[in-house]
Amino acid sequence: METFNFSSDQAFFLVGFSDWPHLELVLFVVISILYSLTLLGNSSIIALSRTDLRLQTPMYFFLSHLSFLDLCYTTSTVPQLLINLHGLDRTISYARCVAQLLIFLSLASTECVLLGVMAFDRYAAVCHPLHYTTIMHPQLCHALAISSWVGGLVNSLIQTGLMMAMPLCGHRLNHFFCEMPIFLKLACEETRRTEAKMFVARTIVLVCPAALILGSYARIARAVLKVKSSSGRRKAFGTCGSHILVVSLFYGSAIYTYLQPTHTYSESQGKFIALFYTIVTPMLNPLIYTLRNKDVKGALWKVLGRGTDSQ
């Protein structure tokens, strides 16, 4: 097979879901709706957290970062997917593919770390309410946010650099965007050493935040069980349960994709699983984190009320 490297002008062919032509129209409509909801929901969170004084807290500071992250995260893959599903153009240049991989990995890695930071913030709020403002002071919040973005970028640069050093054979990517496991499938040489290095980087960015999230919510559950009010316990468990559900969808699908050996990776299954962490969880995040939140509802009704009055 033909071998090429980063200096080549060759293009990749993104197979997408063309193996299931009867699904393409359905997927196009559903994904278009979910993408629109993602843009609307996350943009609303950012706008509300910037304009309402009640939302000037660490929780909404991190949530606005998550919303901005999800906007960029979905936009790095979904427009390409919609073009692919429409059948207009299924090719992507090598340079664009590498750029997409770098951006996607950076944003996905940042989200992994940021979700861990948000779980720690909830732990501090629930388990140490009297010292919460002291613990989560503005300097620490900004430092944690910056660390999340920098950590995600560094992880992406490491993995993308390792991928670019590999000679590749072929130009057919059995996916709807440029994702690392697909590149490993195209490698012309033994990839065990490269995979081992990538595995270490992925473990740090996936398993460590996941362990922090589990530990934080375990402490929160223990604290909630001490609450005497049954309604208070139900509310707290309901909120925490919805958070854990979204985190589980994101981490579960990402761990399945990135922590399994290349030879066991199923390209067909990988495409459908990727839909969860590229489309579903970014759409659910603004709903889950604000659905039962009185402050966000109040801010939203305040904005809508002003709109009605002005009209």
Q: Could you give the order of the helices and strands?
A: EEHHHEHHHEEHHHHH
| Tally of DSSP β-strands | 5
Sheet/helix structural class: mainly alpha
Number of helices: 11
Radius of gyration: 21 Å
- The pLDDT mean sits at 84
Shape descriptor reads globular
Low-confidence stretches: 1-7, 307-311
What percentage of residues falls in helices of 4 or more residues? over 70%
Strand order of the largest sheet: 3-2-5
Strand content: under 5%
What is the distance, rounded to the nearest whole angstrom, between the alpha carbons of the first and last residues?
Answer: 65 Å
Describe the structure in your own words:
With 311 residues, the chain is mainly alpha-helical. It has helices at 21-51, 58-75, 78-86, 94-127, 132-135, 138-164, 180-186, 192-225, 230-258, 267-290, 294-310, and strands at 3-4, 11-14, 91-93, 168-169, 172-173. It has a 3-stranded mixed β-sheet with strand order 3-2-5. A two-stranded antiparallel ribbon has the order 1-4. Residues 1-7 and 307-311 have low confidence and may be disordered.
Structural key phrases:
single chain, disordered C terminus, 311 residues, 4% strand, 5 strands, mainly alpha, two-stranded antiparallel sheet, 75% helix
Short recap of the structure:
With 311 residues, the chain is mainly α. The chain is 75% helix and 4% strand.
